[in-house]
Design goal:
alpha+beta; single chain; rod-shaped; Muramoyl-pentapeptide Carboxypeptidase, domain 1
Length: about 525
């Protein structure tokens, strides 16, 4: 047994001595190392003496409390490591090897882990994550607490000066030799990413570990960045708006066909970048404009239809229907042929015929005579000829040019182009036209003809009278016939979300006057 202990002690001393010589750089360092070895040999001698006396140096709680003044981990050496090993060796279940070397190696690390687990300090993890296997502030406090309950505070000698072991300077941060810290690959990481760290230990002025871990701290954003659209609209992280490829679509199209749901994830929008508009509206249907000339055009609302003509006039013996086509407007496009461009067509009336102060309508007949008078007792009938008016041209013989014929002493009366036979009466009028709603009979007088002279008042001088027709109404370029009605609007376009019907009024035309409010003055609304 004695031989085995001495061999173990010599081996440990050789390890420590070799390690010390490899790292010692000054006479002071060598002296400190020799002092440490001397202390370790004294301890070994005590253990040998205890073995000879039949006592145990491994009983829990029998060792003095170690004087721990710094963090201890694998690779660290010193008198404080020696005291830690002596403390741990007091419990063979914790430190069965019982080596007192002054160097913190794997066996010491395992002993620390067992002691931490036994005393409920930490029982899992790594040195970098939980401090498992290292003697940090928490473990030192636990050792001091256990010692205070088992043994009186020892009288300790201050440890050898640590100036012999160089510290490590990392920027403005200084690390004592033997001190271990967690370093990181980067100072910051993206949202959702984890900081990657590695443990580095200062050993006599040299910072070990992977040099790529060059940051003492690392932060991760708690929230993702917002996303910015081309128009400046900001979308918060995690939001999933529906965006559109176009801000407007044509009439008849659906905005939904141009939409895509995109998700903002830490400043980046998913999906196609072309979908960048937050709103989309469908255009209204366009009206149709038919141009007949440089000064005349006709507007037709979407879905409305209207008759158009190839010509504006036809002869009296033709029909406008032969030149008509019904055209329908669909969103600005008009069906049918472009040659049908006139909104109306009129039949040119046939010309009348005028002869000897008598006007004969087209297709009408009138008897004309070769002489205006015959001898008393004679008849004009043999001198007459019935002539027909055809579009301004009279049939028959030109010699039959007199519209009246009478025997001598029975002259006709002529007034305002109207002949009245001798000894007969005719109606004459004081006004040529009377207003709409009046009757010509109110302004008439019957006058008797006696051998060329009319009886009655000379103020009744017109052979005919006509009542004026009711006037139509015109507003905003729209004509409404008398007695008819039409819708007019107070706006040309309603506010968003409303309809034109809310701004509409039906107005009636009565002889040139429109009923209703003058505020409703627009002929169309869309």
């Amino acid at each position: 047994m004695k031989k085995r202990i001495i061999a173990t002690a010599c081996g440990a001393a050789l390890v420590v001595f070799s390690f010390g010589i490899a790292h010692a750089q000054t006479i002071d360092e060598l002296k400190a190392l020799i002092q440490t070895l001397t202390q370790q040999i004294a301890v070994l001698e005590q253990q040998i003496a205890a073995k000879k006396a039949g006592t145990s140096t491994g009983a829990p709680g029998s060792a003095a409390c170690p004087n721990l003044y710094r963090a201890l981990s694998v690779g660290v050496s010193g008198a404080d490591v020696t005291e830690l090993q002596r403390f741990l060796a007091a419990d063979t279940a914790v430190y069965p090897e019982g080596l007192i070397t002054g160097y913190f190696g794997p066996a010491t690390e395992r002993a620390v882990q067992r002691w931490q687990a036994k005393n409920a300090v930490v029982s899992s993890g790594t040195a970098a994550t939980t401090g498992y296997g290292t003697v940090g502030p928490g473990t030192r406090a636990a050792i001091a607490r256990v010692c205070s309950m088992t043994t009186p505070p020892p009288i300790t000698t201050p440890p050898p000066p640590t100036a012999t072991l160089k510290s490590c300077n990392f920027g403005s941060t200084a690390m004592q030799s033997g001190e271990t810290r967690t370093f990181f690959l980067t100072g910051t990481v993206a949202y959702g990413a984890a900081c990657q760290g590695g443990v580095r230990t200062c050993v006599d002025g040299v910072l070990g570990g992977d040099a790529t871990y060059g940051f003492l701290s690392c932060t991760s954003p708690t929230t993702g960045r917002s996303c910015l659209l081309p128009d400046g609209t900001s979308i918060g992280h995690g939001n999933t708006p529906t965006l559109y490829k176009q801000s407007t679509v044509l009439f008849g199209q659906n905005c939904a066909a141009f939409s895509q749901v995109r998700t903002c994830n830490d400043g980046t929008l998913s999906g196609n970048f072309e979908y960048q508009y937050t709103n989309c509206t469908a255009q209204g249907a366009a009206s149709c404009i038919v141009v007949a000339s440089s000064t005349a055009s006709t507007t037709i609302a979407h879905s409305a239809q209207r008759d158009f003509y190839q010509v504006e006039r036809v002869a009296y013996d033709q029909s406008c229907n032969n030149y008509k086509q019904t055209r329908v407007c669909t969103d600005g496009y008009l069906s049918g042929s472009v040659t049908y461009k006139y909104p109306s067509c009129q039949v040119t009336p046939a010309k009348t015929c005028t002869l000897d102060n008598v006007t004969i309508a087209h297709a009408a007949k009138y008897t004309f005579y070769t002489a205006r008078s015959v001898a008393a007792g004679s008849s004009c009938s043999s001198l007459g000829q019935e002539r027909t008016c055809t579009d301004g041209v009279l049939s028959g013989t030109a010699a039959n040019q007199y519209s009246v014929c009478a025997p001598t002493g029975t002259r006709w009366c002529l007034l305002d182009g109207k002949y009245t036979a001798h000894n007969t009466s005719g109606a004459y009028y004081s006004q040529k036209t009377v207003p709409f709603g009046n009757s010509c009979s109110q302004f008439s007088q019957t006058r008797l003809c006696t051998d060329g002279t009319l009886a009655g008042s000379a103020s009744y001088q017109y052979a005919s009278c006509s009542a004026s027709t009711a006037a139509s109404c015109t507003l905003d370029g729209k004509t409404v016939d008398h007695g008819a009605s039409a819708a007019f609007y107070s706006v040309t376009a309603p506010p968003t979300g409303e309809t034109c019907e809310a701004y509409q009024q039906i107005r009636y035309c009565n002889d040139g006057f429109l009923s209703g409010s003058a505020s409703f003055s627009q002929q169309s609304c869309s």
